[in-house]
Amino acid sequence: MEGHRALTWVIYVDINVLCQVRTAPGVPETGPEKPLKWKGDEMAIAKNTICVWYDKDAEAAARFYAETFPDSSVNAVHHAPGDYPSGKAGDVLTVEFTVAGIPCLGLNGGPQFKHTEAFSFQISTDDQEETDRYWNAIVGNGGEESACGWCKDRWGVSWQITPRVLTEAIAAGGAEAERAFAAMMQMGKIDVAAIEAARRG
Question: Which pLDDT tens digit goes with each residue over 28-68?
């Protein structure tokens, strides 16, 4: 119950911080970091936002994602207005960021809850060069390799780096999908040339 009370309190603070702060300290009005969007006198909040729980490194994670993926940015950093179970007043509490066009909120909630493969970001790639770039960035920054195009970043968040050729092959169905799927099952990082060869048979 203590963990649930802490979660409820942090979310309560999170909502209040979002209502009080327009632009995070240190976040410029122009450049790669984008300020919050406002509609008249009201803050425009996305209808659906992915909330990702971190121990204490939400800002570092968000900045890494912004540097790694296109159409990504750190939009705002919010500091706790008071002490809370896993931190104190002035600590970074939430970070608004965008990953490949998807709005997200990083929450520094403490060590109670860990990431699993039950949630992952899936990034589509056009070729081997793009696949290698994202995969190497994640794994080379303290992450770890997994199987079938999956890897984890240093904060434990899972990523699927998925070439479009693989998605198309599976969607095609039949023997083509079977061959591509069998090839994928032997891979860590996806080998685009090997998937294309499997598609041809």
Answer: 333 344 444 544 555 567 899 999 999 999 999 999 999 99
Task: Report the CATH number that the domain containing residue 62 is assigned in CATH.
Answer: 3.30.720.100
Q: Does 41 share its domain with 127? A: no
Beta-carbon neighbour count of residue 121 at 10 Å? Answer: 18
pTM comes to 0.80
List alpha helices for 40-89, DSSP H. 58-68
Residue 12 lies in a domain: yes
Backbone angles phi, psi at 34, to 5 degrees: -105, 135
What is the tens place of the pLDDT at every residue in 124-144?
Answer: 999 999 999 999 999 999 999
**Nearby residues of 80 by Cβ (< 8 Å), 6 or more positions away:** 13, 17, 87, 88, 89, 90, 91, 92, 93
Say which residues have a Cβ less than 8 Å from residue 42's Cβ, sequence separation at least 6.
none
The span from the CA of 9 to the CA of 3, in Å, is 10
What single DSSP character describes residue 163? Answer: E
Distance CA 3, CA 109 (A): 10
